[in-house]
Design a protein that fits this description.
Chain A has 23 helices and 9 strands. With about 400 residues, chain A is α/β, with parallel strands linked by helices. Among the domains of chain A are: about 5-80, no CATH class; about 285-395, 3-Layer(aba) Sandwich (Rossmann fold). Helix content of chain B is about 35%, strand content about 20%. Classes of the chains: A alpha/beta (about 400), B alpha+beta (about 475).
Chain lengths: ~400, ~475
């Protein structure tokens, strides 16, 4: 198939207008490699690495081509073919740290010191970062590195129980947006669910999967699935990337326990939308950004909007191109800072058109990325997860 | 041919180094359009942003005697946006702005790389739209539409691209910037806009287009009628037109297409029917109501299994989304297919459908049909398995047989996709030697060095165009051409 309907939906094609940086072009390259017409050259790798993995092309594709899976397979294949003594890559370091809760705790500890002792300001002023664009991008994302707090392991439903759900706490979410996890738990209980939060659940492996680390993903997703009891009706995620990867576990681990768990994964907004939540007025004007791995990866678009509209006094202004990637895409904004920044600029232009002061998105990566852009442009924007606003409306304050 | 490093440096100096593609890998992705059967990678791809750059590119190519191939979104179906002789491909995807919207004069001026639908999106709030709507309109560029004189479902009522192009800015094969036509209705001098539209880049590169904007109708009604067979449904088409109706669109979808679309977009076309007619009526509300009743009545008289009307805009939009994505959705039925674009007089639709069924059975290939029934413009998709070496040959034979059957019924070798590499050889089926030679001479006026999109539209010929004697495929006896 070569119809090209995906082209205008692809963020990198929007920016560059080049065939080899479009989904159709990338598939053409992958196919040429598979057929032996091309070797895995640096140029091929470059064009595939520039892909955000946002899967907007899957939403557009009338033939149902699963680009995300093709890309993950190609990346795994390329990693296998690479020289054993390949150059050290920043992505390897990030993938060593993020999915491992203990290492992440340790790194965030260092970061807090980096910030508290004024080192961040010093480094930022030194001009050193200008020479290392990827480190600079990493630094710019980190405004504040709070502690990961301990969450309750069980919270009973308020009123009559509708069933039991398990909450995936994530790795980045747990550290940078701990409040989102607490609000998720509170709201689910309020909506009538008994909530279990397994303590030793680890990371889902989404970042590794998107980078082509399929075996690493299988291990992590399998361990996570094992951490959840059998009797939960749903496994709830509040980070788009985790939800999307876990829902794909059926493809990568067919017939396994993880595959059965995958069939029960839902985004938190999908469960809350048919619950009965007593909501107090919030006189706010907000806009909603579709996280790629919610809109394209999980086809969740209507639920978060419906929930926001249910808050009395809240005005939801639609964002033009709301499902065009903001450039975050896992660790992409650190590895490809230039393209990520160009997409962030497009996103911020659109956000300004709405006039809203609050941007809502269901993924920690997007929240960090857009917040970074707002700081750089001196825009007075608040970034919020849908559950944050819902909690504010339901309980008078968010966690 | 390959280009000298000096020439590549010259290109970089014109458009900037980020707008020149020279890597083997990058160029390979430009080697074909949607008709993947014809492949030819350019030696270099350039992505200009301004007319001045385009002029400089053409002038440099003339000096280096290098072919020039334009490309929009690469959604063509004829092997048009590919470079059989190498050379420079001018990709218009960074010349994609709307330069002016002039509601008072009902027109807009755009750059060629602008996506067709994006123009409608820009004027929709004010109640306007750009009428030519090829099924690829969500991705195809207006420059590409002009180049092939594209049609679309709604051209039954609204006319094809040429009816909506008021003026053009061209960089001719001589490297001069020329403006033809304009906003006023009747410009003095030759109608060169009409000459240039549909010339597939063999005269000039289009750098700006002034197009007509159309005001949206007050009401739209979409009737969906299911039939037992495509042949039955075909009879309705002539009956409706003969009854004096002018639907905005009249589209036919057969059983295989319905299956593919429903699996793709979930558009909800009636399953189990042998064919579905999608009839759209638009205009003043009162008229649309009456016409809708008439259309439904004609369908019932011809044995429709069911007749329904889209309940709301959302349902209508979904039906059209399904229809417009059909060519992509067929990817669910087969990995590869040949998409034909031929025309028969609409009264001959039942004959040709019978013929297509017979050809499919003879070759043992699935032929899926989705087409603009209202103007007799067929799009049979001949499905084959590209992993089996003999199947492509069989598909190609079936394709040629089908085309000849259309011509035998008084039809045409192309409806709306253009000629490109694929159809150039078929042009002699339709024109006499004198006609073809005249076309060669016109081409020479715009492009004396014959560098503009070589190998496309006109059949290849040995010398200067005079005294051309084309090879003509044999036609069945008694054929009227």
């Amino acid at each position: 198939m070569h119809c090209g309907i995906c082209l205008p939906q692809c963020p990198t094609y929007r920016v560059l207008g080049e065939e080899m940086d479009s989904p159709r072009g990338r598939i053409y390259l992958m196919r040429a490699v598979a057929e032996g017409r091309l070797d895995v050259t640096d140029t091929v790798t470059e064009h595939l690495d520039l892909c955000l993995g946002c899967r907007a092309c899957e939403t557009a594709c009338p033939a149902g081509v699963r680009f995300g899976t093709l890309l993950e397979t190609a990346r795994a294949d390329m990693a296998r073919r690479a020289q054993p003594l390949r150059r050290w890559r920043l992505s390897d370091l990030l993938l060593t740290v993020f999915p491992d809760p203990e290492r992440l705790d340790w790194v965030f500890g260092l970061l807090r010191r980096y910030q508290r002792w004024g080192l961040q300001g010093l480094v930022r002023r030194s001009g050193l970062l200008g020479r290392f664009p990827r480190l600079s991008a990493l630094d710019a994302l980190l405004d504040d590195a709070p502690h990961a707090e301990t969450l309750p392991e069980y919270v009973p439903a308020r009123g009559r129980s509708r069933g039991r759900v398990g909450v995936v706490t994530g790795c980045v979410q747990r550290h940078l947006f701990g409040g989102v996890n607490r609000d998720t738990i509170r709201l689910l209980a309020l909506a009538g669910w008994d909530v279990v939060v397994p303590r030793e659940q680890g990371c889902c492996g989404a970042l590794e999967l998107h980078a082509g680390g399929i075996d690493a993903f299988r291990g992590r997703a399998g361990a996570l699935a094992a951490a959840f009891p059998d009797d939960v009706d749903w496994i709830v995620t509040n980070a788009a990337g985790c939800g999307s990867a876990l829902r794909d576990a059926g493809h990568w681990l067919p017939g396994s326990r993880a595959a059965r768990v995958a069939a029960r994964v839902r985004d938190v907004t999908e469960l809350l939308v048919d619950g009965d939540l007593p909501l107090a007025p919030l006189p706010l004007t907000v806009t909603y950004h579709d996280a790629c791995h919610l809109a394209h990866g999980q086809k969740v678009r209507a639920e978060p909007r419906a929930l926001l509209r249910r808050i009395p006094g809240l005005t939801l202004v639609e964002l033009r191109d709301s499902d065009l990637c903001c450039g975050s895409a896992g660790i992409y904004n650190v590895l490809q800072p230039e393209m990520a920044d160009r997409l962030l600029d497009l996103k911020l232009d659109r956000i300004r058109e709405t006039g809203a002061r609050i941007v809502v998105a269901g993924n920690p990566g997007c929240l960090m990325q857009i917040a970074k852009g707002a700081r750089a442009r001196n825009l007075d924007l608040e970034l919020a997860h849908p559950v944050t606003l819902l909690a504010r409306s339901a309980f008078g304050s968010s966690a | 041919m390959s280009l000298t490093p000096r020439f590549v440096d010259e290109m970089r100096a014109i458009v900037g180094k980020d707008a020149v593609v020279v890597s083997v890998e990058g160029r390979m992705t430009y080697e074909c359009d949607m008709h993947t059967f014809y492949k030819g990678a350019p030696d270099v791809v350039v992505l200009p942003t301004r007319t001045e750059q385009v002029r400089a590119i053409v002038q440099a190519c003339r000096r280096a005697n290098t072919p020039i191939v334009p490309r929009g979104s690469g959604t063509g179906l004829i092997g048009g946006a590919m470079a059989p002789q190498g050379g420079v491909m001018v990709s218009m995807n960074r010349m994609a702005s709307i330069l002016e919207i002039d509601y008072g004069n009902r027109c807009a001026t755009v750059q060629p790389g602008l996506i067709n639908l994006w123009l409608t999106n820009a004027v929709r709030e004010r109640g306007w739209f750009f009428a030519p709507d090829p099924s690829s309109q969500m991705v195809s560029s207006i420059g590409g539409n002009v180049s092939t004189n594209a049609g679309g479902p709604h051209c039954l009522k609204y006319g094809i691209t040429t009816n909506h192009v008021l003026g053009l800015e061209l960089v001719t094969g001589r490297g001069e910037v020329v403006r033809v036509g304009g906003k006023t209705l009747d410009r003095p001098g030759y109608d060169l806009t009409g000459v240039a539209v549909g010339s597939e880049g063999t005269f000039a590169l289009v750098t700006a287009i002034t197009v007509r904007l159309t005001h949206a109708p007050e009401a739209v009604k979409t009737v969906l009628a299911a039939f037992r067979t495509v042949i039955e449904a075909s009879q309705v088409v002539s009956a409706a037109i003969a009854a004096g109706m002018t639907p905005a669109a009249m589209e036919m979808l057969d059983e295989a297409i319905i299956r593919a679309i429903n699996a793709g977009t979930g558009a909800g076309y009636p399953e189990g029917a042998g064919a579905v007619l999608l009839i759209e009526l638009d205009g003043p509300r009162a008229e649309v109501e009456v016409q809708g009743e008439r259309a439904a009545a004609i369908c019932r008289e011809h044995g429709a299994l069911s007749v329904s009307v889209a309940r709301d805009e959302a349902e209508r939009a979904l039906l059209w989304k399904g229809r417009k994505e059909a060519a992509g959705a067929v990817g669910r039925l087969t990995a590869s297919y040949l998409l034909q674009d031929a025309v028969v007089p609409r009264s001959k639709l039942p004959h040709i459908m019978r013929e297509i069924v017979a050809i499919g059975e003879r070759y043992g290939l699935l032929i899926a049909n989705v087409f603009h029934a209202g103007d007799g413009n067929l799009h049979p998709m001949i499905c084959y398995d590209d992993t089996r070496p003999d199947e492509l040959e069989k598909a190609k034979e079936a394709n040629e047989e089908l085309l000849r059957a259309c011509i035998a019924l008084g039809g045409s070798v192309t409806g709306e996709h253009g000629m490109g590499m694929d159809k150039a050889k078929n042009l002699p089926l339709q024109y006499a030697d004198a006609d073809l030679n005249f076309m060669f001479r016109i081409r020479g006026v715009f492009d004396p060095a014959r560098l503009m999109n070589p190998g496309k539209l006109l059949p290849t010929h040995p010398a200067c165009g005079e005294g051309f004697r084309p090879q003509r495929p044999r036609l069945p006896e008694g054929t009227w051409v």
